[in-house]
Design brief:
The structure holds 2 protein chains of 2 kinds.
Chain A lengths: L2 H5 L11 H23 L10 H21 L1 H14 L6 H22 L11
Helix pairs in contact in A: 3-4, 4-5
Chain B lengths: L1 H13 L2 H19 L5 H8 L8 H26 L8 H12 L3 H35 L3 H18 L4 H15 L2 E2 L6 E2 L13 H20 L17 H23 L5 H15 L12 H16 L1 H7 L5 H12 L7 H5 L1 H33 L3 H20 L2 H19 L4 H24 L6 H4 L1 H18 L1 H12 L1
Antiparallel strand pairs in B: 1-2
Helix pairs in contact in B: 1-16, 2-4, 2-16, 3-4, 3-17, 4-5, 4-6, 4-12, 4-14, 4-16, 5-6, 5-12, 6-10, 6-12, 6-13, 6-16, 7-8, 7-19, 7-21, 8-19, 9-17, 9-18, 9-19, 10-11, 10-12, 11-12, 17-18
Classes of the chains: A mainly alpha, B mainly alpha.
């Protein structure tokens, strides 16, 4: 149950400036192995259950936010984010989600672009 | 009377209309995000960072600092009225604060947390004013070897103070250091761990890591829990404390302030740790520990004073040593650098109006909070009755925009998603993210001073032992680590965190 830790970040050292990272990396691997081996020997509680649906929808909504922001502008990006993220919640009502997303989209355009004058594209650029 | 003159200079800066106005905005926004669960000062400060570019440096820092300690006030409101921590540092306030609210003493609980926070704010402001200049003098004598050892001490204390397994905490610190080393090496210009991705050559922004690991993860985890929230929307009455309550609370406030001020200075400390420590300390020394969890006013007064004290004294290492002790301070450091201010001992000497202005503004801000906060509680309550399914998309949105506006690059958003996933994994594996953040912040600084120290000593590692300051730090670090590994202390430590 603890093996995942041991795999993460091995000793990917480079020449020259690699001194510090190598030492730290080596220490990390040592500790990772220690924790991993202990996990095999000692019977602890198992890792809590994963809620894959929530995890996936929330992270996907943010990733899509980045994607749509770049190509379609802030307004569409907010719509995408809010609707998809809402699906990850417990009570999902499509109509409600669309109304909220529209309000938030208008609000954030007003707040960030007009009031705070941040350089964010609002609409699709083509 | 130098201190007095300095304070007069500071208030002269803090009381100009423009600085007062931004101080007010800062504490107001801080309280707002403090009240809202899931949106922390870190995300807010990151979001507002770009708009401070055009301000005078003092004004910008005053506002950003206001957000941090304002959030400590706001967090307690949510904890007391909704039994949900509005801010992670208010987790323990929920225990007794909510019980007090159920017994109809919500007003008293709110009043004591505001007054306690104000008292703590005043004391810790004076502490900064009194101790920062001599510490800065001392810090000027630090060579690279002393700095390195100091950071080792900081990381060790972060490990010791983390809850859960020590081995896991050490691993998290190491992982954090490695993540901090991503990007172009300062000394040789070689790109390290970038996997050929050009966006990574500047390193990973710590706001990105923090938003992913704390912000996104927090939302996902709280969606899983699906807690029912019961908001006390009834009018909050009876703000005044009874005589007995006052008698019980006053010493608790004092103890909380002391403990918080001390823990705030420690690297890895700050508001969160202070409140936990203050609560278990109160419980331990109480003549009647059974009343905790049933609405003991000490259980509200002590942690709330402690978190505010801790929030403010955590400025000391940043302002005197140039070392941020927690992610929020790292963001403050970033803000200073943007304004061309090198954080560290030089600030006190070269820019007294900045240093003292900031200190004075903290006191002014605390005063504003205590005056405005109680009348505004009705507004916060209304805000809290908004269901979470409306709130969390907005929180995600603010985080997303905050990340994007840092460098106007969508790559940062994808990176944050990755860290969000990692953060979720850490929660499930019971690894604390705070040591990781500290390692991430201090890692590159450590490497630099290590190299510089070894360069000066021509590669002789004995320099860390022959330099007296450095030696002291290393001994302290070893001692700390040694103490926690001892079985007896280990068990006790587990008890403390279980509570």
């Amino acid at each position: 149950m603890w093996m995942a830790k041991a795999f993460s970040f091995g000793t990917a050292a480079r020449m020259g400036p690699a001194y510090f990272p190598t030492v730290i990396g080596g220490m990390l691997v040592t500790f990772g192995l220690f924790i991993g081996l202990r996990g095999l020997v000692v019977n602890g509680e198992s890792v809590g259950s994963f809620h894959f649906k929530t995890l996936f929808l929330i992270l996907a909504s943010i990733a899509l936010f980045g994607l749509t922001l770049q190509y379609l502008g802030l307004f569409c990006a907010v719509l995408t984010l809010v609707v998809i993220a809402s699906m990850g919640g417990h009570e999902f009502k499509l109509r409600e989600a669309i109304i909220i997303s529209a309000c938030l989209a208008a609000g954030s355009v007003a707040l960030f672009v007009f009031a705070l004058k941040l350089q964010i594209p609002i609409w699709p650029s083509f | 009377m130098e201190l007095l003159n300095n304070l007069i200079l500071g208030f002269g800066v803090a009381l100009t209309p423009i600085n007062m106005a931004y101080c007010f905005i800062g504490v107001l926004v801080g309280t707002l995000v403090g009240v809202l669960p899931g949106l922390g000062p870190l995300a807010t400060m990151a979001m507002l960072l770009p708009i401070t570019f055009n301000m005078a440096p003092v004004t910008a820092l005053i506002m950003l600092a206001g957000i941090y300690y304002g959030a400590q006030y706001g967090g307690s409101t949510t904890a007391i009225l909704v039994n949900l921590p509005g801010e992670s540092s208010s987790v323990v306030t929920c225990i007794d604060g909510y019980q007090m609210a159920r017994q109809g003493r919500a007003g008293a609980a709110l009043a004591i947390s505001a007054l306690g926070s104000f008292f703590a704010g005043t004391v810790s402001t004076m502490l900064i004013a009194g101790f920062a200049p001599p510490l800065a003098d001392l810090a000027l004598k630090f060579g690279p070897s002393a700095y390195f050892s100091l950071m080792v001490l900081g990381l060790v204390s972060a490990i010791v103070l983390a809850s859960g397994s020590i081995a896991k905490a050490i691993a998290m610190v190491l992982l954090g250091i490695l993540l901090g080393l991503v990007g172009t090496d300062v000394n040789s210009g070689v790109a390290r761990f970038t996997f050929g991705i050009s966006e990574l050559s500047d390193g990973v922004g710590f706001v990105i890591v923090a938003m992913g690991v704390f912000g996104f993860t927090e939302v996902i985890v709280s969606l899983e829990l699906n807690e029912k929230r019961e908001v006390f929307t009834k009018k909050v009455t009876g703000l005044w404390l009874t005589k007995d309550e006052f008698k019980a609370a006053a010493p608790a406030v004092l103890r909380g302030t002391m403990l918080g001020s001390m823990l705030g200075i420690l690297p890895g400390g700050g508001a969160l740790l202070s409140s936990f420590a203050a609560y278990s300390f109160e419980k331990k020394i109480s003549k009647n520990p059974s009343k905790f969890g049933k609405g003991a006013i000490e259980g509200v007064a002590a942690p709330e004073s402690a978190n505010n004290a801790g929030a403010q004294t955590s400025f000391i290492p940043l302002l005197t040593l140039g070392i941020p002790s927690n992610p929020v301070m790292a963001l403050m450091m970033g803000a200073m650098m943007i304004h061309n201010i090198q954080p560290g001992p030089q600030i006190v000497i070269n820019q007294p109006e900045l240093f003292w202005g900031m200190i004075a503004s903290m006191w002014v801000g605390n005063l504003m909070l205590v005056v405005f906060n109680l009348p505004l509680i009705g507004m916060w309550v209304k805000l809290l009755s908004v269901p979470y399914r409306f709130l969390f998309p907005a929180i995600l949105l603010f985080c997303g925009i905050g990340i994007y506006t840092l460098s106007y690059n969508t790559f940062d958003i994808y990176l944050a998603v990755l860290f969000g996933f990692l953060g979720y994994l850490f929660v499930k594996l019971e690894c604390e993210a705070a040591p990781l953040m500290l390692g991430f912040i201090l890692g590159p600084m450590m490497e630099e001073s290590l190299r510089r120290a070894l360069l000066i000593s021509r590669g002789d590692p004995a320099v860390f032992l022959t330099n007296p300051i450095s030696l002291c730090m290393l001994i302290a670090a070893t001692a700390l680590l040694g103490i926690v590994i001892m079985p007896a202390v280990r068990r006790k430590r587990e008890d403390v965190f279980v509570e």
